[in-house]
Amino acid sequence: MAKVKSTFFCQNCGAQFPKWIGKCTSCHEWNTIVEEIVQKEEKRSWATQPATKKAAKSLKIDQITSTQESRLNTNNHELNRVLGGGLVTGSIVLLGGEPGIGKSTLLLQIALLMQQRVLYVSGEESQSQIKLRAERLANHNKECLILTETKTQNIFREIETNSPQVLVIDSIQTLHTDTIEASPGSISQIRETTAELIKFAKETNIPVILIGHITKDGAIAGPKILEHMVDVVLQFEGDRNHSYRILRAQKNRFGSTAELGIFEMQNTGLREVENPSEILISEKDADLTGAAIAATIEGMRPLMIEVQALVSTAVYGTPQRSATGYNIKRLNMLLAVLEKRAGFRLGTKDVFLNIAGGLRVEDPAIDLAVIAAILSSNEDEVIAPNICFTAEVGLSGEIRAVNRVEQRILEAEKLGFDKIVLSKYNKIPNQNYQIEIIKVGSMLDIVKALF
Ligand code: TYD
Ligand code: MG
Predict the structure, then answer these.
(1) Which atom of ligand 1 is nearest to the CA of 105?
(2) What is the average pLDDT across 369-390?
(3) How confident is the model at residue 451 (pLDDT cuts 50, 70, 90)?
(4) Is the whole model's pTM more than 0.90, yes or no?
(5) In which band, very low, low, confident or very high, does the pLDDT at 436 lie, cut at 50, 70 and 90?
(6) Distance between CA 171 and CA 177 in Å, rounded?
(7) Fewest CB within 10 angstroms: 129, 204, 417, 442, which?
(8) H helix intervals, 75-215
(9) Which one of the ligands is nearest to 102 CA?
């Protein structure tokens, strides 16, 4: 008899230890080390090991019949778009977001909106609390079942009796299974309950949507492997002080991760925002300095976004720089470029930057609008409201081309802008636009174009 060999692994980072310790020396997490059996018996050569009875057979790629994945309509355009066209049957989706951002509201709303029978399992709120929330939401799917339960075995029993077509779990951190001792929310419970749910989803073809809490630094709480295990990871984000919420896909095995869903939190739940450009441009009386409109693209959708900047003389020795919805390091870089390449003395000025609507923008094409807004505030010159910007700015002050420029031009034209400023390196195949196209190549060109 060969002896059983076991090793201790950190459930958070995967580091390996010869004996149990309280704190992982690699990732510094507490109480994440568990014992795992690594070798049951003496290793034989790989070729002589017997296969199990149900071993899978390999197939030539041509022999595999392709099946179109079937998708359920969630009856919510924004969610459908982010999922890549609907909820794939048998898939497992993880929805993460800060507390109070609206995860429970979104999923309850979807449960009430879908045509299918949905089982909404909550470990956080009582049935009557959920009923109260449901009353605020307009839609009513009579087939929606509400269960307050945290033990997976009991949930599966309930599923057997009611046979729902979609399962929603509010939140994975509250679940626990009998097969493991650890307390709910611990790493091994999260891993085990998720594994049970994945098995359930794959065997029954019932899609499962999980809500996941996130930690201080924005990652989904629990082991990183959770994100590897599920098919889709969605992130629900937004500024708590604004009513707009953004739904992004961080991972999607059935669609693009570039798509974006936009919602507005109202008294009656989350409203889908179909035309985001109109709301992201603030209703300003003209003649305000420090505002510029950027033509950006998030996912497949063009978005016109207002950038606001305030440049004022610094009171303290070290000037303040602050950015909401924009990367502060990038702002510092653009300020350095303005100083070095265009001769603006911004080193002694406070600079505040704000993206209207509480949005966080990742498209680099917003750079030019940021520069324009800063210059406008610094020079106290108004930028005409009928002009918009789309270009990336490089370290040497060069104005760079952006992708999908036609789509941006068309959106600007549609929303009634008269001029769009872009890089002279952008190739524009079609020249028949109503909108005037202003091409710039360097910092000095912009200054000339603006003032
Ligand atoms: P919730 O879904 O409970 O957040 P999470 O599950 O992500 O923690 O959302 C709570 C917030 O949403 C709460 O602060 C109130 C607000 N809300 C509305 O503004 N309108 C509504 O119709 C509902 C149901 C909630
Ligand atoms: Mg909740």
Answers:
(1) 2
(2) 92
(3) confident
(4) no
(5) very high
(6) 14
(7) 129
(8) 77-83, 103-113, 127-136, 152-162, 187-204
(9) 1
Q: Per residue in 329-359, pLDDT tens?
A: 999 999 999 999 888 888 889 999 998 877 7
With beta carbons less than 8 A apart as the criterion, state whether 400 and 391 touch: yes
Tokens of 125: 């709120």
One-letter identity of residue 268: T
Distance of CA 207 to the CA centre of its chain: 20
Q: Among all ligands shown, which has an atom nearest to the Cα of 96?
A: 1
Q: Is 20 exposed, middle or buried (0-12, 13-18, 19+ CB in 10 A)?
A: exposed
Of all ligands present, the nearest one to the C-alpha of 174 is 2
Any idea which residue has 């390996």 for tokens?
16
Burial class of residue 272, CB neighbours in 10 A (0-12, 13-18, 19+): middle
Any ligand 1 atom below 6 A from CB of 313 = no
Please tell me if the CB atom of residue 238 comes closer than 6 angstroms to any atom of ligand 1.
Answer: no
Residue 99, pLDDT score = 87
Predicted confidence (pLDDT) at residue 377 exceeds the cutoff of 80: yes
Does the C-beta of 100 come closer than 6 Å to ligand 1?
yes
CATH 1.10.10.10 fits 73-274, yes or no: no
Choosing among 3.30.460.80, 3.30.230.10, 3.40.50.300, 3.30.70.270, the CATH entry for 279-450 is 3.30.230.10
Query: Is the Cβ atom of 351 under 6 angstroms away from ligand 1?
Result: no
Q: What is the mean pLDDT of residues 357-372?
A: 88
Decide if 244 contacts 261 (C-beta within 8 A).
no
**CA 351 to CA 312: how far, in whole Å?**
7
Burial string for 378-409 (b: 16+ CB within 10 Å, else e) reads beeeebebebbbbbbbbeebbbbebeebeebb
Instruction: Pick the closest to residue 263 from 82, 406, 126 (CA basis).
Output: 82
**Tokens, residue 390:** 């789309």
Task: Compute the C-alpha angle 197/202/207, nearest 5°.
Answer: 70
Report CA(100)–ligand 2 centroid distance (Å): 7
Residue-wise pLDDT for 262-289, tens only, equals: 899 998 999 998 877 766 666 656 678 8
- Sheet of 349-355, strands arranged across: 321-324, 349-355, 301-313, 291-298, 387-390, 419-423, 436-440
**What are 168-222's pLDDT values in tens digits?**
999 898 999 888 777 787 777 888 899 999 999 999 999 999 999 887 666 666 6
Q: Is 265 in the pocket of ligand 1 (CB under 6 A)?
A: yes
